[in-house]
Design goal:
3 strands; three-stranded antiparallel β-sheet; 3 helices
Length: about 100
């Protein structure tokens, strides 16, 4: 059975980006590859699993309509320190 994801990425300054995918590891890797510098590093701070792509897209749209305060409450409820949930998925970058 396929799995789809609605996710939220955050920069260090807590600017948020939303998305959907059927391969969360690959998609987060692409976000990281697009980063021009480490100061805008995107961290995976929240995600949800869905059974269909339509459900994941609907949830992404719902997340996009939430206020910033509601989004931060949602993230903090599941990830209080806003840790990068994908921190151990990739080989660290060289400085």
């Amino acid at each position: 059975m396929a799995v789809y994801f609605a996710y939220i990425l955050s920069t260090r300054s807590r600017s948020l980006t939303f998305g959907t995918t059927n391969n969360l590891v690959r998609r987060v890797g692409r976000h990281r590859a697009m980063e021009p510098d480490r100061h805008r590093e995107h961290r995976l701070v929240y995600f949800e699993r869905w059974a269909t792509p339509e459900a994941a897209v609907l949830r992404e749209q719902e997340l996009g309509r939430l206020t910033y305060a509601r989004l931060t409450d949602l993230i903090t409820a599941h990830n209080p320190a806003w840790n990068d949930l994908s921190a151990d998925w990739f080989i660290p970058r060289r400085a």
